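Researcher: For the annotation table, I need structure tokens for Small, acid-soluble spore protein N. Please keep the output clean. Sequence:
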Amino acid sequence: MPYHKNKQQAYQAAEQGHKQAMDAYAYSQMIKEEPGYGRQLKHVEEEVNEAYAQIENALETASDTQRRQLEQFQQDLQSIVNEVNND
């Protein structure tokens, strides 16, 4: 039972990390022309890095269904990185 609980907790942490990174990025896009934009981009970078780490951790024990979702989370984060690098 602890294994299953840890597996679920790892997935939930990755899911939450993904959401926080997506939210931080969305907010950065709303304030793109404002003075705090650079600081917000740094926050986005931190959230993305943390989410990547959480996803990698969750992938170690993920079920097939979870793995597909986690891989989608990784693609979403890569899209953020690509957008930020192209700005």
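Researcher: And a one-line annotation?
Model: Residues 9 and 58 are 8 Å apart (CA to CA).
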